[in-house]
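thought: fold this chain, then report.
action: predict
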Amino acid sequence: MSSARRARVYQKLQSASHCVQKTADRLVQEAGPLTTSQAAALSVVAGFASCNQRMIASQLGLNESAVTAMVTRLIRDGFLTRARSRTDARTWLLTLTDAGRDALQSVNGPFAEINDRLEAVLTEAEIYQLADMLKRVADTFGETEQS
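observation:
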């Protein structure tokens, strides 16, 4: 039996992910009008001068149809605007509205609380090791999903 199987790595990773996600969902919901997924999408848009749905999907590891539905809701709720690209008429560019910036600001506290809780149980070195390990795991499985 492999080391990973003996240590039940998949089960522990899934359990940790579920617990962190559940807590983040609750904290974000209490803080304002966004879900954690919507906050992630708005963060992607905020990070680029111009952004389209394909970029959001790529950054978040989601399929484009899921992002289309989310972006439609974010536009309807007044958090994003959509305009045709001046260089490619097939592309819609997304921009944060003032309400979108405010909503994104409202989730800073909940995400800071999640990070504070992690920092309470892990040393600084462990945090960097964990971040590196999680990136490698995501890269390994991300490549499989895209093939």
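thought: worth noting. The helical segments are 3-6, 9-31, 36-46, 53-60, 64-76, 98-106, 108-121, 124-146.
final: tokens above.
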